[in-house]
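About this split. The held-out portion is used to measure sequence recovery: a designer receives only the C-alpha cells and must propose an amino acid at every position. Recovery is the fraction of positions where the proposal matches the reference. Here is one held-out target exactly as it appears in the evaluation file.
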C-alpha cells in the first residue's frame, strides 16, 4: 500500500524574543505566575511587517533542503493557519509563488491549534489516493496580531512561528512496521465555539481578538486528547510502550504532563517546547518535530505520536513511523 513518508522538516522563529519579564511590563502578570501555570518562559514575536507567509516560506525552504526535494517536485501545499496574510488568496499560494512553484495546488486549512494534525491527515489522504506524490505540509501563525495585548489571561500564552514537513509517497506492507503516517483521527464539536474564538472576521467587518475561557478549554483538552490518542492506539493495535516520542500541541506544560501520565508515557519521551515557543497554534507541532529531529532525538523508524486540540473545538491525533 501507499504510505506518506516524512522526508524532511524545517522551522522558523521570528528573531525577537519577548520574555515573561517583558510581558510583566505590558500586563499585570509575573514570571512566577506564567511559569507555574503554563511552563512558558518566553515567546517569539514577528517584526512589524513580517507576515505569516514570511515565516512559512522560511520553514518550507528549510524542510525542502532537509528532505533534499526540489520545489518543482512539490504537488501540493497544505498550510494550516488561523492567521493568514490576507482574507484571500490562501497564504499557501503566496508560499507556492515564493518557492517558484507553478504546478500542483496550494490551499490553507483552518482548524486553529489542531490545524497541523488536520493538514497531515489531509495530505496523507491525497497521497494514499494516488493524487499526490510529494506534499509540503506547513503550520504557520502570527497570533501576536490577534491577541488583545491588554488581556493578561490570553496575551501571555501565545507566540509566533512556523514549521513544515515534506511527505512523500512510498511503498509499505500495510503493517505498523511501515514507515510513514500509520493512522490519523480528526474531530470537531462546534457547540464549544464560544470557549475559544476570535471576535471578528471578514463577515463581521473586523479582524478581532482572541477570546478564551482557559479553564474550560483546559478541562476539555485533557479528556479529548486522551480519547483521540486511545483511538490512534486502538486503530493500530499499538500501546503506549510502542511510542518513542510524543510530540503534542504545545499549549500548556500542565496539559502535556497530565496527558503523558494518563496514557502512561514517561516524561523523557515527551517533546516539550512550550517553554521557549509558547503556544504557536498550528505551528507548535511541526516546530517541536523539527527541534527533536535536529537535536537527534527523533530518528528513522521511531514511532511518533502527534496530537492537538484547539478552537472549534477541534482535536486530532496521528501516529507516524519516522
Ligand atoms: O491552544 C488551544 C488550547 N488552549 C489551551 O489548551 C489553554 C488551556 N487553558 C490553560 O492553559 C489554562 O487554563 C490557563 C493557563 C489559560 C489559565 O490557567 P488556570 O490555572 O486555569 O488559571 P485560571 O484561569 O483559573 O486563573 C487563576 C487566577 C485568576 O485569578 P482569581 O480569579 O483566582 O483571582 C486569574 O485572574 O489567575 C489569574 N490570572 C493571572 N494572573 C497573573 C489569569 N491570567 C493571569 C496572568 N498573570 N497572566
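Reference sequence for scoring:
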Amino acid at each position: 500500500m501507499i504510505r506518506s513518508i516524512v522526508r524532511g522538516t524545517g522551522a522558523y522563529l521570528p528573531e525577537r524574543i519577548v520574555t515573561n519579564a517583558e510581558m510583566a511590563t505590558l500586563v499585570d502578570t509575573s514570571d512566577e505566575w506564567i511559569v507555574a501555570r503554563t511552563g512558558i518562559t518566553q515567546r517569539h514575536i514577528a517584526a512589524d511587517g513580517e507576515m505569516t507567509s514570511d515565516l512559512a516560506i522560511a520553514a518550507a525552504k528549510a524542510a525542502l533542503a532537509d528532505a533534499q526535494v526540489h520545489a518543482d517536485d512539490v504537488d501540493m501545499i497544505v498550510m494550516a493557519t488561523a492567521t493568514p496574510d490576507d482574507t484571500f488568496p490562501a497564504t499557501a499560494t503566496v508560499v507556492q509563488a515564493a518557492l517558484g512553484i507553478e504546478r500542483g495546488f496550494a490551499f490553507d486549512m483552518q482548524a486553529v491549534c489542531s490545524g497541523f494534525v488536520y493538514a497531515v491527515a489531509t495530505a496523507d489522504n491525497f497521497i494514499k489516493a494516488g493524487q499526490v506524490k510529494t506534499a509540503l505540509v506547513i503550520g504557520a501563525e502570527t497570533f501576536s496580531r490577534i491577541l488583545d495585548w491588554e488581556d493578561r489571561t490570553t496575551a501571555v500564552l501565545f507566540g509566533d512561528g512556523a514549521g513544515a514537513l515534506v511527505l512523500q509517497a512510498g511503498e509499505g506492507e500495510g503493517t505498523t512496521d511501515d514507515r510513514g503516517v500509520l493512522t490519523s483521527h480528526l474531530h470537531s464539536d462546534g457547540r464549544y465555539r464560544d470557549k475559544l474564538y476570535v471576535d471578528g472576521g471578514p463577515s463581521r467587518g473586523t479582524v478581532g481578538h482572541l477570546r478564551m475561557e482557559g479553564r474550560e478549554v483546559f478541562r476539555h483538552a485533557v479528556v479529548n486528547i486522551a480519547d483521540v490518542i486511545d483511538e490512534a492506539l486502538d486503530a493500530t493495535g499499538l500501546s503506549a510502550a510502542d511510542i518513542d516520542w510524543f510530540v503534542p500541541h504545545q499549549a500548556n506544560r500542565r496539559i502535556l504532563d497530565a496527558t503523558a501520565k494518563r496514557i502512561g508515557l514517561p516524561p523523557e519521551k515527551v517533546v516539550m517546547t512550550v517553554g521557549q515557543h509558547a503556544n504557536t497554534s498550528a505551528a507548535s507541532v511541526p516546530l517541536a518535530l523539527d527541534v527533536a529531529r535536529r537535536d537527534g532525538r527523533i530518528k528513522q523508524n521511531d514511532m511518533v505520536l502527534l496530537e492537538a486540540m484547539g478552537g472549534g473545538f477541534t482535536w486530532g491525533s496521528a501516529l507516524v513511523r519516522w
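Annotator remark: The first strand starts at residue 2 and ends at 12.
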